[in-house]
Amino acid sequence: EWIRTHVPGIHIPDAIITRLRGAQKQKAEGQQICIELIQQLREIEGVAGVHVMAYRQEEAVAEIIDRSGVLAGRVPWYPSRDSNRNASRNPKSEPSLSEPRAIA
After folding, report:
1. Residues of the chain with pLDDT under 70
2. Is 36 a domain residue?
3. How many domains does the chain have?
4. Which parts of the chain fold into alpha helices (H)?
5. Per-residue pLDDT tens for 16-35?
6. Is the whole model's pTM more than 0.70, yes or no?
7. Are 43 and 10 a contacting pair, CB within 8 Å?
8. What pLDDT sits at residue 35?
């Protein structure tokens, strides 16, 4: 409830506050709510991701993301020098990520 009254621009629905108040383990319930919200947001067309802030519970973020299932089946993207989209570019004019350059 503190964040609801002290941080401008934050809206936390009454249903969430009621659910947290009624929970025996509020921290665990808050994490479960976060997981459910991520799962719901994932289903909305055009939503490309979420930003999870866990004030003083940073260690819980990885578990929340894992339990939400949002990363299931995803493969990290890494740029490739061989990619077709870079084929038409002059490699000499592109900065290399592996070779440090001075910025003038």
Report:
1. 82-104
2. yes
3. 1
4. 2-6, 14-21, 26-42, 61-68
5. 999 999 999 999 999 999 99
6. no
7. no
8. 96
